[in-house]
Amino acid sequence: MKDISAEHAQRKEELLAKLEERAMACPGLYPVRTREDFLRLAIDHAKGGDELVCQILEEIWRRPDEALQINAQSLIRRGMGWGNEKKKKSLEG
């Protein structure tokens, strides 16, 4: 019996390599260029394990235009926490 999690991990690495290669070959196609950034987008959007991350990476591969929306959502989510912390510090000091 095959280990499903190992298959998803392998597929994730394949997709990340393909996305990074395409992003470097076609500047401007994606809002990010490195495998680390593609992984961040997928993790932020999927909020789950490797299977969900793979689904997001596959969607980004099939529809590069979706990467822009996913990136914007990721930046908004990540920025909210930083903005609240900055506001809190300014109120304290």
How would you explain this protein's 3D organization?
This protein is mostly helical and 93 residues long. The protein has helices spanning 4-25, 35-46, 50-62, 64-92. It has one domain (4-92). The protein starts with a helix and ends with a helix.
User: So how many helices?
Assistant: 4
Largest sheet: none
Shape: globular
The number of E-state strands comes to 0
What's this, in brief?
The chain has 93 residues and is mostly helical. The chain has one domain.
Strand and helix map with partners:
Layout: H1 4-25, H2 35-46, H3 50-62, H4 64-92
Task: List the main descriptive attributes of the protein structure presented here.
93 residues, mainly alpha
